[in-house]
Amino acid sequence: MTSHAGGARPNGAASTARKGGFSARSGWLLFAGFLMIFGGLMMVFSGISALARDDVFIPTPHYAYELDLTGWGWIHLILGVVIFFAGFAVIKGALWARVVGLALAGLSMVASFMWLPYTPFWALVLLAVDGLIVWALCTAPGLLED
């Protein structure tokens, strides 16, 4: 076992570490991808609960964005499934998934904002997760260089 001066690795080991997928760039993409998978699952569960039992949610008469809970359930279910699978594509490093992830996280934020009267805490958590997804996808280096 040989020690290198200053803790530096030989050139081959440094390039292997970068190729191994654990650089700063992929760290942000992994973070965004896992958040997308988590946020997508949360939206799927929210959609399923709205589709399964309409009586679980508080009725909100005179709500500006009034839509039947079944409609909200389908919106959340479809968005959740697409965000879930796009999260796996972001982890794989697909550039298109980053762009799609930004658009879907934005749509999810709008849907979660409109979902606030039905489940305030759940919607706020989804808003926070979507905000972190947008932040992580935008701050990961390499979007414009790829």
TrEMBL record:
UniProt KW Membrane keyword: yes
Entry keyword set: Membrane, Transmembrane, Transmembrane helix
This protein's record includes keyword Amino-acid biosynthesis: no
Protein name (database record): DUF7144 domain-containing protein
Transmembrane segments: 28-52, 72-90, 95-115, 121-144
One Pfam family named in its UniProt record: DUF7144
Lineage: Bacteria, Bacillati, Actinomycetota, Actinomycetes, Kitasatosporales
UniProt xrefs under InterPro entries: DUF7144
UniProt domain DUF7144: residue ranges: 28-140
